[in-house]
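## Example record

The block below lists the input lines for one assembly entry, exactly as stored, with component labels intact.
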Amino acid sequence: MIQIDFASKTYVCPFCEHAQAFYASHDAVNNNSYCTSVAVPQGLEESSFTIHSFRCSNSACKRIAVTAINRTSGKQIDLVPQVVMKHYPNYISQQIRNDYEEANLILEASPKAAATLLRRCLQGMIHDYWGIYEKNLNAEITALKDKVTQTQWAAIDGLRKMGNIGAHMEQDVNLIIDIDSDEARKLMRLIETLFGKWYIARHEEEQLFMDITSISDQKEAQRKEHDS
Ligand SMILES: [Zn+2]
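Predicted structure tokens for the full assembly:
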């Protein structure tokens, strides 16, 4: 969902994730036979929506987000984009990001299919980040056991098991185990946490080490210059 705070007039652009202030250049509400100046007759439920559009002030983005808010319930339904997702840097491989983004797109409509995609995403990460390749994901997760914390490992194995529900038919077709969207969203958070703890942490660490080495080299060069 697009994050909007009407009280402080700020929102987070769903495309580039920049938090920013917005101002309303035009404000008019006219829904069917009612408009803002006419109160909804008592006892009548209003079904109309107020449409809000936001243009990003980040010059590299400038994209327009649109959302609809129900005037009675306050429920927000995003129109553009319909799904708000995090965008990850390209040092995480394209295939892994594709699986993650596709899982986001189908999560509400099919949580089970999303769990299956997240399981595939996890397998891609175990191959790509850890270099572990075994006969199947189960064996790969077993090989990962002594490399991550016990709780992280248990959650990863949980994602594998839940992703299995969509990936393989149960022996007994009458046995239906479902995954709801809240559960699939938790699996999604797990993948995001692993992106952070594995890829982003490694990248930031390498960046910092390179920066320090380069500063140290510069100082060394200055010292030599001074000595000569
Ligand atoms: Zn933007």
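Residues 4-80 form one domain. Residues 106 and 128 are 24 Å apart (CA to CA).
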